[in-house]
Amino acid sequence: VSYDTLEHRHDKRMRRRLRILASVILSVPILFGGIFTFLWFNTQHQVDVALQKAQLSKDLLADMIDQYPKLFKDIPQAGPVVDNILIKSLGALRLGDSEYIKLLKMDALLSPRADDEMETALTKAMILRYVGQTEKAVKAYAEAAKLLPQGQEDYKTMSRYFVEQTDVTVYGCGVLIQDIDSKVSQECDGLSKNDIIVAAKGFRFRSLEQFKLTLSDNSQDQDMAFEVLRLKNGKLNKLSLKFKPGSFKCVTAEM
Q: Which residues pair with 254 in a beta bridge?
């Protein structure tokens, strides 16, 4: 075989390889573009479905709150059960900082009942505070105070100051110190009875459960920063205290 023939065959193979390589290079963006397009549309579809489900849930909740007294008027024993379910749902919306809760017609649902348990009475009070119904919230906290095993009058007084003097968008919840031993008070940087803890390690919790989780998720033997409201001359003043979560042993109540 002549040299020219060999050179021609080599050039032909090289051109074929270059065409294959170019095809691969061009197909990669198309392939990945297709994958990303699929993922985007799939994600967008999932978001749309989630939004539709959320809207459906909101509509159902709104209809239930508005219509359930009529629906269950012939089954009086079902009323309190449905009440509790709806109040817990509203409580979850409050914890999620939902603006939707403010659009619901729930005056009748949040009215105090003689058979309310402590959790229900407190949830009603916290929802009323959340939606800005200050006067009703104060009364609801006073009703919840009656169900406490101790410190009812102190709780009634401190909850009124808390509702009237704090912004719910800043302090979503408070933990009232109902009783604390003098030794524990010293170990907790002077934390005192009727102080209201509103933040732990910079986290402004929205429930007593969140506060407890914050304590348990951190070292029990290292100082943690706490934001506290203390009543003085009719005003709640903000204090910064530092103490070990392991030293925090006192009687508390959520507000």
A: 175
